[in-house]
Design a protein that fits this description.
The chain is of the alpha+beta class and 383 residues long. Helices cover 54% and strands 16% of the residues. The chain has a 6-stranded mixed beta sheet, sandwiched between helices. A two-stranded antiparallel sheet has the order 4-5. Strands 7-8 form a two-stranded antiparallel ribbon.
C-alpha cells in the first residue's frame, strides 16, 4: 500500500468513528426518550387503572345506604295499599251517600208535612183525637188499627180491629186481625163482642181489651173511616192496586166484582174487603182484609209509589185520628219496604182454638181458648 493510500485510510477512520459515536449517542438519546415516554405512559396507565380505595369505599357506603332505604318489592306493595287517591275516592262516595240521604230525609219530611196539611184542611168527617194510654213492655211498638163505619153515629162499633207490628224480632210487618164476633171480657163492661169495646170506650178501651184477653200491648193507634180509606188508596195508587179477587161478588155492593186478577181503585178495594154475604161470613171477610193489606204493601215495590209514600202517609195522618209519630215511621221505613215481599198474617181466634156459642142476648159469638190463642200470638210474633 502506498503512503497516499495509508494516509487516506487514516483520515477516513476518525471520521467514521466520530460519526459512529454521534450515531450511538443519537440512538442512545432516542432510546432514552422512548424509554421515558414508555415509563410515563406506563405510569399514567397504572395510575388510571389503579383503583382509588377511598373513592370506592365511599361509593359503596352511599350505595349501601341508598339500597337500605329502598324496601324490597314485597314491602313496597304492602306500603302502597293505602293510597291517597283511593282514600279520596272513598271519601267522595261517602259524601255522595250522605248528601243523598240528607236530601231523601228532607224530601220525605216536607212531603209528609204537606200531605198532612192537605188532609187536615179538606172537608172530612175525621174521627176526633182520643186519649190513648199506649205503652209497650218490650222492644216492639205495636199500632192498633181501627176501621169504623160510624155513618154519623156517636157510639158506633168497630168494623175492623187489627194490630200491626213493624219493629218486632222479625224486622218485617206482622198483621193480626181479630174477628169482631170474638166473645171477650171488656174491662169495666163485662162479656161482649170485641167490637163493642170501641163503642163503650173508644180506642183506649179496645187496647185494654186486647191486652187483657190476648196479652198484646199497643203503643200507638190509628182510626180510619171507610171514606178516608178510599181517599188514601186513590192518593197513593192512582192506577189502582193489583189484587186477585177470590170470587164473583155483587150482593149489597156498590160496585160488582168479578173473580180473577185485576186493578181496584179505593172504592172497589173497600167493597172487596168488607164483603161477607157468603157462607164464610166474618172469616172470609177477615181473610180478604188481610189480603188487601198485603196487596197494598206489595205495591210499594213500584219506585213511583215509594216516592208518593211520604205525601200519602202525611195525608193519611191528616184524614185519621192517630198518635203515630213521623219519627217512628221513618225509623221503620226498612221494615215497611220489606212488606213489599209479603206481610205475615194471623187471624184470631186461631184455627182449632174456637167454637160457636151464644151471648146472653142470644146472638151468635165465637168462644175461644184464651191460653192457646195467647201462645199462638207469641209464636207468630217471635218468628
Amino acid at each position: 500500500m502506498s503512503r497516499m493510500d495509508r494516509h487516506r485510510n487514516e483520515e477516513e477512520k476518525p471520521r467514521t468513528s466520530k460519526k459512529n459515536i454521534f450515531a450511538r449517542r443519537q440512538r442512545k438519546g432516542t432510546s432514552d426518550e422512548d424509554s421515558s415516554m414508555e415509563d410515563f405512559s406506563q405510569n399514567y396507565q397504572d395510575d388510571w387503572q389503579r383503583p382509588n380505595d377511598d373513592y370506592y369505599e365511599e361509593t359503596d357506603r352511599i350505595n349501601e345506604d341508598r339500597y337500605a332505604q329502598v324496601p324490597p318489592p314485597s314491602e313496597k306493595k304492602s306500603k302502597k295499599k293505602p293510597k291517597k287517591p283511593r282514600k279520596k275516592k272513598k271519601h267522595r262516595i261517602l259524601r255522595f251517600i250522605l248528601t243523598l240521604l240528607i236530601l231523601l230525609i228532607a224530601y220525605s219530611g216536607i212531603s209528609f208535612y204537606l200531605g198532612q196539611r192537605v188532609g187536615a184542611s179538606e172537608d172530612n168527617d175525621v174521627p176526633e183525637a182520643e186519649t190513648f194510654n199506649g205503652f209497650s213492655d218490650d222492644d216492639a211498638h205495636n199500632i192498633l188499627l181501627i176501621g169504623s163505619d160510624s155513618r154519623g153515629e156517636e157510639n158506633a162499633r168497630a168494623d175492623t180491629i187489627m194490630v200491626l207490628q213493624l219493629d218486632g224480632p222479625a224486622n218485617k210487618p206482622k198483621l193480626i186481625s181479630f174477628m169482631r164476633d170474638t166473645y171477650v171480657d171488656i174491662p169495666g163492661e163485662g162479656d161482649n163482642k170485641i167490637n163493642a169495646s170501641y163503642a163503650y170506650g173508644g180506642a183506649d178501651l179496645v187496647r185494654q181489651t186486647i191486652s187483657q184477653n190476648f196479652g198484646i200491648d199497643c203503643q200507638y193507634y190509628m182510626t180510619l173511616d171507610f171514606q178516608t180509606f178510599e181517599k188514601v188508596i186513590d192518593t197513593l195508587f192512582s192506577n189502582g192496586v193489583d189484587i186477585d179477587a177470590e170470587k164473583d161478588m155483587s150482593k149489597n155492593l156498590e160496585v160488582p166484582i168479578e173473580k180473577g186478577p185485576q186493578k181496584m181503585d179505593g172504592l172497589t178495594l173497600l167493597q172487596y174487603a168488607r164483603f161477607r154475604m157468603d157462607d164464610e161470613g166474618d172469616f172470609g171477610r177477615v181473610r180478604r182484609q188481610q189480603q188487601v193489606i198485603s196487596a197494598i204493601f206489595s205495591e210499594l215495590k213500584n219506585p213511583i209509589s215509594l216516592l208518593k209514600l211520604p205525601y200519602a202517609a202525611g195525608k193519611t195522618m191528616g184524614y185519621s185520628a192517630n198518635d203515630v209519630p213521623m219519627t217512628f215511621l221513618a225509623k221503620n221505613i226498612l221494615s215497611i219496604s220489606k212488606g213489599a215481599a209479603g206481610v205475615d198474617r194471623l187471624s184470631v181466634p186461631a184455627d182449632d182454638t174456637w167454637s160457636y156459642g151464644q151471648s146472653f142476648n142470644g146472638g151468635s159469638v165465637l168462644l175461644f181458648d184464651q191460653q192457646a190463642n195467647q201462645q199462638a200470638i207469641q209464636n207468630f210474633l217471635a218468628k
